[in-house]
Specification:
alpha/beta, 5-stranded mixed sheet, 48% helix
Length: 186
C-alpha cells in the first residue's frame, strides 16, 4: 500500500509518501514541505499549495491520501488556513479518484509513539526509527506528514477491514458465516 500523508498548513504544508503494509517494514518514498510566503496574496498561496498537492498525487499515485483532521485552536486565522490547505489535499485526491481519510493529531501520535500526547520531537524520532532514516525529516511538518501515512498503514487498514466486515454482516440476505482466517479474503 502506498499512502500520501498531508500535514496541512498555509505557510508550511508537509507532504509525505510511505509504502508498505501493517506488520512489515515501511519505506520512505518521498517527503517535502511546500512553503508559501505570508506576504503573498491568499489566492496565490492557495494556488501554490493546490499545484504542489496535485503534482504529488499525480506523481506518486497513492492508494489513499491521509490528511490531518483540522481541530479548533485559539487562533482562528491559523485554523482557517489549515482547513483551506486540508481541503485542497482532499480535492487533489478526489480529482484522481483516490480515497481520502482523516486522522486526528492524537490518533497519529498514539499510533506512532504509543502516547496521544507525545511532542513533535518524539514523533520525529519515531518516524526516523520506523522508516530507518539516517537523518530525521525536518521541519516538523515533514515528519508529521510521514507520521500520518504510517498511522494510516498501521491503523487505517485495520479500521477499513473492520468496517467492511460490519457492512457484510449487515447486508440483508447474507449470512456473516464463520470468520475467514486472517489475511484471507472472501
Amino acid at each position: 500500500m502506498r499512502v500520501l500523508g498531508v500535514d496541512p498548513g498555509l505557510t508550511r504544508c508537509g507532504i509525505g509518501v510511505v509504502q508498505g503494509s501493517a506488520g512489515r517494514a515501511l519505506s520512505l518514498v518521498h517527503v517535502e514541505v511546500v512553503r508559501t510566503p505570508p506576504e503573498d496574496p491568499l489566492a496565490t498561496r492557495l494556488l501554490t499549495l493546490a499545484d504542489a498537492l496535485a503534482a504529488a498525487v499525480t506523481e506518486y499515485r497513492p492508494d489513499v491520501v491521509v490528511v490531518e483532521r483540522v481541530f479548533a485552536q485559539q487562533n482562528v486565522r491559523t485554523v482557517t488556513g489549515t482547513a483551506q490547505a486540508a481541503g485542497l489535499a482532499m480535492v487533489a485526491a478526489a480529482r484522481q479518484g483516490i480515497a481520502v481519510q482523516l486522522h486526528t493529531p492524537s490518533e497519529v501520535k498514539a499510533a506512532i509513539t504509543g502516547s496521544g500526547t507525545a511532542d513533535k520531537a518524539q514523533v520525529t524520532a519515531m518516524v526516523t526509527r520506523i522508516l530507518k532514516l539516517d537523518v530525521a525529516p525536518t521541519p516538523a511538518d515533514a515528519a508529521d506528514a510521514l507520521a500520518l501515512a504510517i498511522c494510516h498503514i498501521w491503523r487505517g487498514t485495520a479500521q477499513a477491514r473492520l468496517a467492511a466486515a460490519v457492512t457484510r454482516a449487515r447486508t440483508p440476505g447474507r449470512s456473516a458465516g464463520p470468520a475467514a482466517p486472517i489475511g484471507v479474503r472472501r
